[in-house]
Amino acid sequence: MTLLAQLKNNSYQTIFSEFLVDTYGEKFFMYNFLISSICGLLLIFALVVTFMTN
After folding, report:
1. Phi/psi of residue 43, each to 5°?
2. 1-53: pLDDT as tens digits
3. Are 8 and 16 in contact (CB under 8 A)?
4. Distance in angstroms (rounded) separating the CA atoms of residues 6 and 50
């Protein structure tokens, strides 16, 4: 029962992820990269500001 449910869940997940990759693939990864780089820049900026004020 649990194995069957797990298999069902896995198949749904793979179908869903494949659908996502097919439809949003490149855009999604680009946005992910942009967001992560922006967060990194903000973190560096905050660190610089804190060091400057101290």
Report:
1. -60, -45
2. 577 777 677 777 777 777 777 777 677 777 878 888 998 999 999 999 999 98
3. no
4. 48
Residue type, 16: F
pTM: 0.44
DSSP labels for 1-53? -HHHHHHHHHHHHHHHHHHHHHHHHHHHHHHHHHHHHHHHHHHHHHHHHHHHH
How far is it, in rounded angstroms, from Cα 16 to Cα 43?
33
Give the C-alpha separation, 54 to 48, whole Å: 10
Residue that the structure tokens 């973190």 belong to: 43
Placement of tokens 């869903």 in the chain: 16
Residue 36's Cα: distance from chain center in Å?
9
